Amino acid sequence: MANNDIRLNERNNEPILQQLLQVWRDYYDEIFEVDLQTGAFETLMDHSRSRWPVKGFAGIEVMILAEKLVHPDDKEAFTDFFDLEGIARRILDDINVTKLNFRIRVESGEYAWVKVKNIVPTKQPGDEIKFFSCFRMLDDEAAADLKYKQELVDALEEQRKLFNEQTRLIKEVTDRVRSPLAGIISMAALAKNDSGDSDTSAERFAMIESEAVSMNRALKSLISEDEELELPVFEFHDKPINEISYGRQFDYDSKPAEEGLEDIYVPEDFAYVSGTVKPFSGRYEEIYDFTGKRILLAEGNKLSHEVIRNMLIAMGAQVDSCNDGKSAVIEFIAHPAKTYDLVMADTVLDEIDGFSVAKCIRISGKEDGETVPIFALTADGSATEIKKAYKYNFTALFSRPIDFVSLFDRVSKEMGR
Is the per-residue pLDDT at 294 higher than 60? Predict the structure, then answer.
């Protein structure tokens, strides 16, 4: 601005005001002088427009205009633009010119685009801070351009809403279907590992059948609820999600990243094992020995809980079981330090989730709270889940269906066997 040394509190300095008005009169429909401290304003033009008050207080008039004339989608931006505290903050940041395009209802009942610019001349020591608010109705060409841009913004917002709904459906499918499916696969592996006990095998196969029926019912329910919704096809830069490597910032995901996870770098010593089961024909207890080790298991899915607990017991471990997150935290804190050699927690639990379980253990103040290995078990193998597990100080994350060879290898490493 050429006249950035103007002293606005010197109202008797008519030549300067006239110079400003002479430059702006033919461009702006209305110019107001506003006192930043009180919000009092009055016009500096020789005329008044019916839609603009001649003088008053900014806070009151802004609210009235917003409610009566400003387009509903522009109300928030309009009120924020004239928030005196916000203007004061921008002045402190040396932002002396700000502008906004908004829509206002005209006599015909339709909305027309208006450009407003707040101009704050350089403040001199001791001055009362005042600024100009300059309004101009845009011509048809400029208004058409803004309308086109707004339509693009609205279309993008609709796509964002649709994507969020699709993401919600995918997550619900993951939570309600993939976990039971992983349990079925794991229970089948456990049943194959039975030592000729027909009663035990029959019981476990009955659990498999029950879980499969529940999963089928859940899937039918989801399809009937969203039968018109097309699932999006996600691209992972030509790289499948189960090939995520260690020691890098993940630049792809199957869902929007949660707040605070965008810049997390996962180091190489954080173990992530994807939900790919390796062929295994032997007996686990012939390879692994967890005798004398005590493990705290927090798993909400009954079938998965039964599979993991029995697998660990078969290899000599003592397993304390919890069905929800709150119970797991209480169980860990209630026992003396170093009671547990390892904690396993599903990320989806009742009461509090698995991430909160890990956080509570880490900040519990117990001697081993910060060092005990904690494994995350999840049906969500996305990059976001991996970064979140690392953020909450898990030792490793295993995606379902669980590859027990990889899991037990890591258990052995963490427990020093």
Answer: yes
Q: How far apart are CA 371 and CA 362, in angstroms?
A: 8
Whole-model pTM: value is: 0.48
Backbone angles phi, psi at 171, to 5 degrees: -65, -40
Distances (CA, A) of 52 to 30, 32, 63, 74, 383: 8, 10, 13, 17, 53
The predicted model gives 74-79 an average pLDDT of 90
Cis amide leading into 401 (omega within 30): yes
pLDDT at 215: 67
At 207-224, the pLDDT tens digits run 776 676 666 666 656 555
Task: Say what the pLDDT of residue 1 is.
Answer: 36
d(CA 395, CA 377): 11
| CB contact set of 17 (below 8 Å; sequence gap of 6+) | 11, 44
- CATH number of the domain at 88, please: 3.30.450.20
Residue 301, burial from CB neighbour count under 10 angstroms (0-12, 13-18, 19+): buried
Range of the domain at 272: 176-415
Residue 294 and residue 339 in contact, taking contact as beta carbons nearer than 8 Å:
yes
CB 211, CB 184: distance < 8 Å: yes
Give 74: exposed, middle or buried? Use CB within 10 Å, 0-12, 13-18, 19+.
Answer: buried
Indicate whether 355 belongs to any domain.
Answer: yes
**40 and 128 both lie in a single domain:** yes
Find where tokens 């003088």 sit.
Answer: 55
In a domain, 2, yes or no: no
Query: Is residue 233 domain-resident?
Result: yes
Tokens representing 127? Answer: 């001055």
Do the beta carbons of residue 335 and residue 217 sit within 8 Å?
no
229 and 126 fall within a common domain: no
3-state secondary structure of 112: strand
Same domain for 100 and 213?
no
Q: How far apart are CA 16 and CA 245, in angstroms?
A: 66
pLDDT value of residue 28: 83
